[in-house]
Amino acid sequence: AFEKANILFNISSRLYNQAVSGINAESLKPAAKTLCLSATIFDWISSNFDNAPLFDISKPMTKLLSQICLLTAQELA
Question: For residue 34, what pLDDT is reported?
Fold first, then answer.
């Protein structure tokens, strides 16, 4: 389960980086969609891994990262 959480965390982080690195006038909608997907993954991690052994995937940290993704997507919208 711990390995699964780490893989999902890395996927979500990669999605966030991909969304914010390629933002231009034509890619606002796909970037916002990718950010929402990243936020959903972070939220899923925080809901399913309450006692995570690492600070990176702890509940408060993943909730914060989820909110950052959603706020960034909101700014793009």
Answer: 92
SS3 35: helix
Tell me which long-range contacts 66-69 makes (C-beta under 8 A, separation of at least 24): 66/39, 66/40, 66/42, 67/39, 69/12, 69/16, 69/35, 69/36, 69/38, 69/39, 69/42
pLDDT at position 63 is: 92
Q: What is the DSSP letter of 19?
A: H
Q: What pTM value is reported for the model?
A: 0.86
Distance from C-alpha of 45 to C-alpha of 40, rounded to nearest angstrom: 9
Sign of CA dihedral 53, 54, 56, 60: positive
* Cα gap 13→33, rounded to integer Å: 14
Per-residue pLDDT reduced to its tens digit, 48-61:
877 767 777 888 89
